[in-house]
Write a structure and sequence with these properties.
Helix content is about 35%, strand content about 15%. Strands 3-2-1-4-16 form a five-stranded parallel β-sheet. It has a five-stranded parallel β-sheet with strand order 6-14-7-8-9. It is α/β, with parallel strands linked by helices.
Length: about 475
Protein backbone atom coordinates (compact mmCIF):
# COMPACT_ATOMS: atom_id res chain seq x y z
CA UNK A 1 0.00 0.00 0.00
CA UNK A 2 1.46 3.36 -1.00
CA UNK A 3 1.90 6.06 1.59
CA UNK A 4 -0.46 9.03 1.53
CA UNK A 5 1.80 11.51 3.28
CA UNK A 6 2.17 14.98 1.73
CA UNK A 7 4.63 14.96 -1.09
CA UNK A 8 8.21 15.76 -0.31
CA UNK A 9 9.25 19.38 -0.83
CA UNK A 10 12.04 20.30 -3.22
CA UNK A 11 15.15 21.68 -1.46
CA UNK A 12 15.97 25.17 -2.73
CA UNK A 13 18.57 27.90 -2.45
CA UNK A 14 17.68 30.55 0.11
CA UNK A 15 15.94 33.48 -1.68
CA UNK A 16 18.27 36.06 -0.14
CA UNK A 17 21.25 34.19 -1.55
CA UNK A 18 19.91 33.10 -4.93
CA UNK A 19 18.92 36.57 -6.15
CA UNK A 20 22.64 37.33 -6.23
CA UNK A 21 23.59 34.43 -8.46
CA UNK A 22 22.44 32.48 -11.51
CA UNK A 23 22.90 29.05 -9.93
CA UNK A 24 20.00 26.62 -10.03
CA UNK A 25 17.27 27.49 -7.53
CA UNK A 26 15.85 23.98 -7.07
CA UNK A 27 18.57 21.70 -5.69
CA UNK A 28 17.01 18.31 -6.51
CA UNK A 29 15.90 15.39 -4.38
CA UNK A 30 18.40 13.46 -2.30
CA UNK A 31 18.24 9.67 -2.53
CA UNK A 32 16.29 9.63 0.75
CA UNK A 33 13.72 12.12 -0.54
CA UNK A 34 13.40 10.31 -3.88
CA UNK A 35 12.72 6.99 -2.16
CA UNK A 36 10.15 8.59 0.13
CA UNK A 37 8.40 10.23 -2.81
CA UNK A 38 8.48 7.11 -4.98
CA UNK A 39 6.86 5.20 -2.10
CA UNK A 40 3.76 7.37 -2.54
CA UNK A 41 3.07 6.01 -6.06
CA UNK A 42 0.07 3.62 -6.18
CA UNK A 43 1.36 1.87 -9.35
CA UNK A 44 -2.15 2.08 -10.80
CA UNK A 45 -3.02 -0.62 -13.34
CA UNK A 46 -4.67 1.89 -15.72
CA UNK A 47 -1.72 4.35 -15.54
CA UNK A 48 -3.56 7.63 -16.20
CA UNK A 49 -0.28 9.52 -15.76
CA UNK A 50 1.14 7.87 -18.90
CA UNK A 51 -1.75 9.17 -20.97
CA UNK A 52 -1.19 12.59 -19.38
CA UNK A 53 2.43 12.68 -20.59
CA UNK A 54 2.82 14.05 -24.16
CA UNK A 55 5.75 11.69 -24.75
CA UNK A 56 4.10 8.68 -23.03
CA UNK A 57 6.79 7.78 -20.50
CA UNK A 58 5.89 4.63 -18.56
CA UNK A 59 5.81 6.61 -15.32
CA UNK A 60 4.76 3.85 -12.86
CA UNK A 61 7.49 1.60 -14.26
CA UNK A 62 10.34 4.09 -13.78
CA UNK A 63 9.05 5.00 -10.31
CA UNK A 64 8.94 1.30 -9.40
CA UNK A 65 12.60 1.06 -10.43
CA UNK A 66 13.40 3.98 -8.10
CA UNK A 67 11.57 2.18 -5.28
CA UNK A 68 13.89 -0.76 -5.95
CA UNK A 69 16.92 1.57 -5.91
CA UNK A 70 17.64 0.84 -9.58
CA UNK A 71 18.10 4.52 -10.41
CA UNK A 72 20.08 3.95 -13.59
CA UNK A 73 17.41 1.54 -14.78
CA UNK A 74 14.81 4.23 -14.07
CA UNK A 75 16.70 6.77 -16.18
CA UNK A 76 17.01 4.35 -19.08
CA UNK A 77 13.34 3.46 -18.87
CA UNK A 78 12.51 7.16 -19.28
CA UNK A 79 14.94 7.48 -22.19
CA UNK A 80 13.04 4.85 -24.16
CA UNK A 81 10.55 7.58 -25.04
CA UNK A 82 12.23 10.80 -23.88
CA UNK A 83 15.77 11.77 -24.88
CA UNK A 84 15.72 14.85 -22.60
CA UNK A 85 14.71 13.59 -19.12
CA UNK A 86 16.79 16.00 -17.00
CA UNK A 87 15.40 18.96 -18.97
CA UNK A 88 11.80 17.77 -18.70
CA UNK A 89 12.25 17.05 -15.00
CA UNK A 90 13.11 20.72 -14.53
CA UNK A 91 10.90 22.75 -16.87
CA UNK A 92 7.81 20.67 -17.79
CA UNK A 93 4.48 21.85 -16.34
CA UNK A 94 3.78 18.45 -14.75
CA UNK A 95 0.97 19.92 -12.68
CA UNK A 96 -1.01 20.39 -15.90
CA UNK A 97 -0.11 17.01 -17.42
CA UNK A 98 0.97 13.76 -15.77
CA UNK A 99 0.54 14.97 -12.18
CA UNK A 100 -2.87 16.47 -12.93
CA UNK A 101 -4.34 13.02 -13.60
CA UNK A 102 -2.43 11.21 -10.82
CA UNK A 103 -4.99 9.17 -8.86
CA UNK A 104 -3.52 10.41 -5.58
CA UNK A 105 -4.48 13.96 -6.56
CA UNK A 106 -8.17 13.13 -6.00
CA UNK A 107 -7.67 13.07 -2.20
CA UNK A 108 -4.05 14.01 -1.57
CA UNK A 109 -1.17 15.70 -3.36
CA UNK A 110 -0.07 13.99 -6.61
CA UNK A 111 3.22 12.14 -6.82
CA UNK A 112 6.04 14.56 -7.71
CA UNK A 113 6.69 12.84 -11.05
CA UNK A 114 8.87 15.57 -12.51
CA UNK A 115 11.14 15.70 -9.48
CA UNK A 116 11.61 11.93 -9.64
CA UNK A 117 12.35 12.13 -13.38
CA UNK A 118 15.02 14.74 -12.66
CA UNK A 119 16.47 12.63 -9.84
CA UNK A 120 16.82 9.55 -12.06
CA UNK A 121 18.40 11.51 -14.94
CA UNK A 122 20.86 13.32 -12.68
CA UNK A 123 21.76 10.10 -10.86
CA UNK A 124 22.58 8.38 -14.15
CA UNK A 125 24.73 11.33 -15.25
CA UNK A 126 26.64 11.29 -11.96
CA UNK A 127 27.06 7.54 -11.49
CA UNK A 128 27.01 5.90 -14.92
CA UNK A 129 27.68 6.57 -18.59
CA UNK A 130 24.72 8.65 -19.78
CA UNK A 131 25.86 8.05 -23.34
CA UNK A 132 25.38 4.29 -23.19
CA UNK A 133 23.00 4.52 -26.13
CA UNK A 134 20.80 1.81 -27.63
CA UNK A 135 21.69 0.41 -31.06
CA UNK A 136 19.47 1.58 -33.95
CA UNK A 137 16.48 -0.71 -34.34
CA UNK A 138 17.10 -1.00 -38.12
CA UNK A 139 20.62 0.00 -39.33
CA UNK A 140 19.47 -0.45 -42.97
CA UNK A 141 17.54 2.82 -42.61
CA UNK A 142 20.81 4.77 -42.42
CA UNK A 143 20.74 5.17 -46.22
CA UNK A 144 17.77 7.52 -45.80
CA UNK A 145 18.50 11.09 -44.73
CA UNK A 146 16.33 13.51 -42.78
CA UNK A 147 17.00 17.23 -42.27
CA UNK A 148 15.75 18.90 -39.09
CA UNK A 149 15.56 22.71 -39.01
CA UNK A 150 16.01 23.97 -35.47
CA UNK A 151 17.65 22.39 -32.40
CA UNK A 152 14.96 23.20 -29.84
CA UNK A 153 12.88 20.58 -28.01
CA UNK A 154 10.83 19.56 -31.07
CA UNK A 155 13.92 19.24 -33.29
CA UNK A 156 15.95 17.32 -30.70
CA UNK A 157 13.05 14.93 -30.13
CA UNK A 158 12.32 14.16 -33.77
CA UNK A 159 16.06 13.74 -34.42
CA UNK A 160 16.55 11.45 -31.42
CA UNK A 161 13.59 9.24 -32.28
CA UNK A 162 14.58 8.89 -35.95
CA UNK A 163 18.21 8.17 -35.03
CA UNK A 164 17.05 5.40 -32.67
CA UNK A 165 15.12 3.90 -35.59
CA UNK A 166 18.29 4.00 -37.72
CA UNK A 167 17.86 7.06 -39.97
CA UNK A 168 20.70 9.49 -40.76
CA UNK A 169 19.68 12.84 -39.29
CA UNK A 170 21.22 16.30 -39.62
CA UNK A 171 20.04 19.25 -37.52
CA UNK A 172 20.50 22.75 -38.96
CA UNK A 173 20.67 25.48 -36.28
CA UNK A 174 20.58 29.20 -37.13
CA UNK A 175 22.41 30.31 -33.96
CA UNK A 176 25.98 29.57 -32.90
CA UNK A 177 24.80 27.51 -29.93
CA UNK A 178 22.45 24.53 -29.84
CA UNK A 179 19.20 24.14 -27.93
CA UNK A 180 16.88 26.81 -29.37
CA UNK A 181 14.44 28.14 -26.80
CA UNK A 182 15.93 25.81 -24.18
CA UNK A 183 19.10 27.94 -24.34
CA UNK A 184 17.98 31.46 -25.20
CA UNK A 185 14.58 31.40 -23.47
CA UNK A 186 15.16 29.68 -20.12
CA UNK A 187 17.53 31.16 -17.49
CA UNK A 188 20.31 29.10 -15.96
CA UNK A 189 18.68 29.26 -12.53
CA UNK A 190 15.90 27.04 -13.94
CA UNK A 191 17.91 25.02 -16.48
CA UNK A 192 21.70 24.90 -15.97
CA UNK A 193 23.71 24.97 -19.20
CA UNK A 194 25.67 21.87 -18.13
CA UNK A 195 22.40 19.90 -18.01
CA UNK A 196 21.28 21.24 -21.38
CA UNK A 197 24.66 20.49 -22.99
CA UNK A 198 24.67 16.99 -21.50
CA UNK A 199 21.32 16.07 -23.01
CA UNK A 200 22.21 17.59 -26.40
CA UNK A 201 25.39 15.47 -26.26
CA UNK A 202 23.17 12.43 -25.65
CA UNK A 203 21.28 13.16 -28.89
CA UNK A 204 24.65 13.57 -30.63
CA UNK A 205 25.73 10.19 -29.26
CA UNK A 206 22.75 8.63 -31.04
CA UNK A 207 24.49 9.59 -34.30
CA UNK A 208 22.74 12.89 -35.07
CA UNK A 209 24.86 15.49 -36.92
CA UNK A 210 24.57 19.18 -35.94
CA UNK A 211 25.40 22.17 -38.15
CA UNK A 212 25.29 25.62 -36.52
CA UNK A 213 25.14 29.10 -38.08
CA UNK A 214 23.00 27.83 -40.97
CA UNK A 215 19.85 29.89 -41.48
CA UNK A 216 17.41 27.94 -43.63
CA UNK A 217 15.58 30.51 -45.72
CA UNK A 218 18.66 32.77 -45.80
CA UNK A 219 21.82 30.64 -46.11
CA UNK A 220 19.79 28.52 -48.51
CA UNK A 221 16.13 27.70 -48.89
CA UNK A 222 14.19 24.72 -47.60
CA UNK A 223 13.64 23.35 -51.11
CA UNK A 224 17.40 23.10 -51.50
CA UNK A 225 17.45 20.45 -48.77
CA UNK A 226 15.12 18.24 -50.80
CA UNK A 227 17.18 18.91 -53.93
CA UNK A 228 20.34 17.91 -52.02
CA UNK A 229 18.82 14.47 -51.44
CA UNK A 230 17.18 14.63 -48.04
CA UNK A 231 14.20 12.28 -48.04
CA UNK A 232 12.25 14.37 -45.54
CA UNK A 233 12.54 17.70 -43.75
CA UNK A 234 11.22 18.68 -40.32
CA UNK A 235 10.60 22.34 -39.47
CA UNK A 236 11.06 23.03 -35.76
CA UNK A 237 11.93 26.71 -35.86
CA UNK A 238 9.88 27.66 -32.83
CA UNK A 239 8.29 31.00 -32.01
CA UNK A 240 10.73 33.86 -31.68
CA UNK A 241 8.77 36.82 -33.05
CA UNK A 242 7.59 38.89 -30.05
CA UNK A 243 4.04 40.11 -29.49
CA UNK A 244 3.98 43.81 -28.66
CA UNK A 245 1.50 46.11 -26.94
CA UNK A 246 1.09 48.55 -29.83
CA UNK A 247 0.76 51.59 -27.56
CA UNK A 248 2.46 55.03 -27.77
CA UNK A 249 6.11 55.16 -26.72
CA UNK A 250 6.87 51.47 -27.20
CA UNK A 251 9.98 52.35 -29.24
CA UNK A 252 11.63 54.32 -26.40
CA UNK A 253 15.08 53.35 -25.20
CA UNK A 254 14.92 50.98 -22.26
CA UNK A 255 11.94 48.96 -23.55
CA UNK A 256 12.68 45.35 -24.50
CA UNK A 257 10.66 42.39 -25.61
CA UNK A 258 10.91 39.44 -23.24
CA UNK A 259 12.63 37.45 -25.98
CA UNK A 260 15.33 40.09 -26.53
CA UNK A 261 15.98 40.53 -22.82
CA UNK A 262 16.35 36.81 -22.15
CA UNK A 263 18.46 36.25 -25.28
CA UNK A 264 20.93 38.92 -24.15
CA UNK A 265 21.31 37.17 -20.80
CA UNK A 266 20.88 33.48 -21.60
CA UNK A 267 22.59 33.23 -24.98
CA UNK A 268 24.83 36.30 -25.17
CA UNK A 269 25.80 36.26 -21.46
CA UNK A 270 25.36 40.01 -21.00
CA UNK A 271 25.40 39.65 -17.21
CA UNK A 272 28.98 38.41 -17.22
CA UNK A 273 31.98 40.72 -17.28
CA UNK A 274 33.89 38.44 -19.64
CA UNK A 275 31.34 38.96 -22.43
CA UNK A 276 31.04 42.16 -24.51
CA UNK A 277 27.24 42.10 -24.90
CA UNK A 278 25.91 45.52 -23.79
CA UNK A 279 23.41 45.58 -20.94
CA UNK A 280 21.83 48.56 -19.23
CA UNK A 281 21.76 47.99 -15.46
CA UNK A 282 18.18 48.97 -14.48
CA UNK A 283 16.94 50.35 -11.16
CA UNK A 284 13.15 50.10 -11.50
CA UNK A 285 11.83 47.46 -13.90
CA UNK A 286 8.27 46.80 -15.04
CA UNK A 287 7.60 43.43 -16.69
CA UNK A 288 4.32 43.38 -18.62
CA UNK A 289 2.70 39.91 -18.68
CA UNK A 290 2.33 37.02 -16.23
CA UNK A 291 3.46 33.86 -18.03
CA UNK A 292 6.60 31.83 -17.33
CA UNK A 293 8.63 34.11 -19.62
CA UNK A 294 7.49 37.14 -17.62
CA UNK A 295 8.58 35.45 -14.37
CA UNK A 296 11.95 34.59 -15.95
CA UNK A 297 12.42 38.20 -17.09
CA UNK A 298 11.55 39.59 -13.66
CA UNK A 299 13.79 37.20 -11.75
CA UNK A 300 16.64 37.79 -14.19
CA UNK A 301 16.30 41.57 -13.75
CA UNK A 302 16.72 41.11 -9.99
CA UNK A 303 19.86 39.09 -10.55
CA UNK A 304 21.51 41.76 -12.72
CA UNK A 305 21.02 44.27 -9.91
CA UNK A 306 17.61 45.95 -10.30
CA UNK A 307 16.45 47.60 -7.07
CA UNK A 308 12.74 47.01 -7.70
CA UNK A 309 11.00 44.67 -10.15
CA UNK A 310 7.26 44.71 -10.75
CA UNK A 311 5.02 42.34 -12.71
CA UNK A 312 2.21 44.33 -14.35
CA UNK A 313 -0.76 42.17 -15.34
CA UNK A 314 -4.21 43.13 -16.55
CA UNK A 315 -6.07 40.25 -14.87
CA UNK A 316 -5.95 38.86 -11.32
CA UNK A 317 -3.66 36.24 -9.84
CA UNK A 318 -6.19 33.48 -10.55
CA UNK A 319 -5.82 34.04 -14.31
CA UNK A 320 -2.01 34.11 -14.39
CA UNK A 321 -0.69 31.64 -17.01
CA UNK A 322 2.66 31.05 -15.25
CA UNK A 323 3.31 27.89 -13.27
CA UNK A 324 2.35 28.31 -9.61
CA UNK A 325 5.84 27.41 -8.40
CA UNK A 326 7.43 30.05 -10.65
CA UNK A 327 5.05 32.69 -9.28
CA UNK A 328 5.91 31.60 -5.73
CA UNK A 329 9.63 31.69 -6.50
CA UNK A 330 9.30 35.21 -7.92
CA UNK A 331 7.41 36.37 -4.82
CA UNK A 332 9.99 34.84 -2.48
CA UNK A 333 12.72 36.71 -4.35
CA UNK A 334 10.96 40.06 -3.92
CA UNK A 335 9.14 40.59 -7.23
CA UNK A 336 6.09 42.84 -6.68
CA UNK A 337 2.79 42.05 -8.42
CA UNK A 338 0.74 44.95 -9.74
CA UNK A 339 -2.47 43.17 -10.80
CA UNK A 340 -5.59 44.40 -12.63
CA UNK A 341 -3.39 46.97 -14.32
CA UNK A 342 -2.78 47.59 -18.03
CA UNK A 343 -0.27 49.94 -19.69
CA UNK A 344 -1.77 52.79 -21.73
CA UNK A 345 1.40 54.57 -22.90
CA UNK A 346 5.08 54.92 -22.13
CA UNK A 347 6.49 58.29 -21.03
CA UNK A 348 9.94 59.53 -22.10
CA UNK A 349 12.63 61.46 -20.29
CA UNK A 350 14.63 64.22 -22.00
CA UNK A 351 16.96 61.67 -23.61
CA UNK A 352 14.32 59.51 -25.28
CA UNK A 353 14.46 56.79 -22.64
CA UNK A 354 11.46 55.45 -20.76
CA UNK A 355 10.94 57.11 -17.34
CA UNK A 356 7.37 55.99 -16.52
CA UNK A 357 4.42 53.94 -17.68
CA UNK A 358 0.90 55.35 -17.65
CA UNK A 359 -1.54 52.60 -16.71
CA UNK A 360 -5.25 51.98 -16.29
CA UNK A 361 -6.92 50.09 -13.46
CA UNK A 362 -8.88 47.07 -14.68
CA UNK A 363 -11.82 45.02 -13.45
CA UNK A 364 -12.93 41.56 -14.57
CA UNK A 365 -16.00 40.81 -16.66
CA UNK A 366 -17.38 37.58 -18.11
CA UNK A 367 -15.00 34.86 -19.42
CA UNK A 368 -13.67 35.36 -22.96
CA UNK A 369 -12.60 32.84 -25.64
CA UNK A 370 -9.59 31.89 -23.45
CA UNK A 371 -12.06 30.93 -20.65
CA UNK A 372 -10.45 33.57 -18.44
CA UNK A 373 -12.44 36.54 -17.16
CA UNK A 374 -12.18 39.45 -19.59
CA UNK A 375 -10.30 42.53 -18.27
CA UNK A 376 -12.24 45.80 -18.60
CA UNK A 377 -10.62 49.22 -18.19
CA UNK A 378 -11.97 51.44 -15.41
CA UNK A 379 -12.69 54.80 -17.00
CA UNK A 380 -10.66 57.69 -15.60
CA UNK A 381 -8.38 55.44 -13.54
CA UNK A 382 -5.07 56.47 -15.17
CA UNK A 383 -1.99 56.53 -12.97
CA UNK A 384 1.79 56.41 -13.49
CA UNK A 385 4.42 53.87 -12.47
CA UNK A 386 8.01 55.16 -12.46
CA UNK A 387 10.48 52.88 -14.22
CA UNK A 388 13.70 53.06 -16.20
CA UNK A 389 13.21 49.71 -17.94
CA UNK A 390 10.17 47.88 -19.31
CA UNK A 391 10.17 44.28 -20.53
CA UNK A 392 7.13 43.34 -22.61
CA UNK A 393 6.60 39.58 -22.15
CA UNK A 394 3.29 38.84 -23.85
CA UNK A 395 4.33 35.74 -25.78
CA UNK A 396 5.78 34.92 -29.19
CA UNK A 397 4.56 34.21 -32.71
CA UNK A 398 6.25 31.72 -35.10
CA UNK A 399 9.40 32.90 -36.84
CA UNK A 400 8.38 34.15 -40.32
CA UNK A 401 11.47 33.35 -42.42
CA UNK A 402 10.61 29.79 -43.51
CA UNK A 403 7.03 30.62 -44.50
CA UNK A 404 8.18 33.73 -46.38
CA UNK A 405 10.78 31.83 -48.41
CA UNK A 406 9.11 28.45 -49.03
CA UNK A 407 6.70 28.32 -51.93
CA UNK A 408 3.65 26.12 -51.36
CA UNK A 409 3.92 26.01 -47.54
CA UNK A 410 0.45 26.73 -46.17
CA UNK A 411 0.21 28.71 -42.94
CA UNK A 412 -2.42 30.20 -40.67
CA UNK A 413 -3.12 33.94 -40.91
CA UNK A 414 -1.18 34.46 -37.65
CA UNK A 415 1.83 32.56 -38.98
CA UNK A 416 1.50 28.98 -37.68
CA UNK A 417 2.38 26.24 -40.18
CA UNK A 418 -0.62 24.07 -41.09
CA UNK A 419 -0.02 20.33 -40.65
CA UNK A 420 -1.87 17.02 -40.65
CA UNK A 421 -2.21 16.45 -36.87
CA UNK A 422 -1.94 12.67 -37.32
CA UNK A 423 1.45 12.76 -39.11
CA UNK A 424 2.86 16.27 -38.77
CA UNK A 425 3.15 16.62 -42.58
CA UNK A 426 2.68 20.08 -44.08
CA UNK A 427 1.14 21.00 -47.43
CA UNK A 428 4.46 20.02 -49.09
CA UNK A 429 4.97 16.23 -49.39
CA UNK A 430 7.96 15.12 -47.35
CA UNK A 431 8.06 18.33 -45.32
CA UNK A 432 6.90 18.04 -41.69
CA UNK A 433 6.59 20.55 -38.86
CA UNK A 434 5.84 20.65 -35.14
CA UNK A 435 6.19 22.58 -31.90
CA UNK A 436 5.83 26.34 -31.56
CA UNK A 437 6.25 26.82 -35.34
CA UNK A 438 2.82 25.17 -35.65
CA UNK A 439 1.01 26.07 -32.42
CA UNK A 440 2.60 29.36 -31.43
CA UNK A 441 4.32 29.61 -28.04
CA UNK A 442 3.57 26.53 -25.90
CA UNK A 443 5.47 24.23 -23.53
CA UNK A 444 8.69 22.27 -23.98
CA UNK A 445 6.93 18.96 -23.49
CA UNK A 446 4.19 19.86 -25.99
CA UNK A 447 6.89 20.55 -28.58
CA UNK A 448 8.50 17.22 -27.76
CA UNK A 449 5.16 15.44 -28.17
CA UNK A 450 4.80 17.06 -31.60
CA UNK A 451 8.31 15.89 -32.44
CA UNK A 452 7.37 12.31 -31.64
CA UNK A 453 4.28 12.50 -33.88
CA UNK A 454 6.40 13.88 -36.72
CA UNK A 455 9.06 11.18 -36.24
CA UNK A 456 6.40 8.50 -36.71
CA UNK A 457 5.00 10.43 -39.69
CA UNK A 458 8.42 10.73 -41.34
CA UNK A 459 9.12 7.03 -40.80
CA UNK A 460 5.76 6.13 -42.38
CA UNK A 461 6.34 8.56 -45.30
CA UNK A 462 9.80 7.18 -46.14
CA UNK A 463 8.67 3.57 -45.80
CA UNK A 464 5.75 4.16 -48.18
CA UNK A 465 7.92 6.16 -50.59
CA UNK A 466 10.47 3.37 -50.93
CA UNK A 467 8.14 0.40 -50.39
CA UNK A 468 9.82 -0.65 -47.14
CA UNK A 469 8.16 -2.99 -44.67
Amino acid sequence: MAETKPRNPMPQQDPAVRIKNFDEVALGYTEELALAEAARCLNCPKKPCVAGCPVNIDIPKFIELIKNKDYIGAAREIKKTNSLPAICGRVCPQEEQCEKVCVLARKYEPVAIGRLERFAADYEAACANPFDVPKPSNPELSKYHVAVIGSGPAGLTVAGDLAKMGYSVTIFEALHKLGGVLRYGIPEFRLPRAVLDREIDYVKSLGVTFLTNVIIGRTFRLNALLEQGYDAVFIGTGAGAPKLLGIPGENLSGIYSGNEWLTRINLMRAHRDDYATPLKKPKKVCVVGAGNTAMDCARTALRVGAEKVMIVYRRSRAEMPARAEEVENAEQEGVVFQLLTNPKRFISDDNGAVRAMECLRMELGEPDESCRRRPIAVEGSEFEIECDMVIVALGQNPNPLIRQTTEGLETESWGGIIIDPETGMTSIPGVFAGGDAVTGEATVISAMGAGKIAARGIDKYIREKYGLE
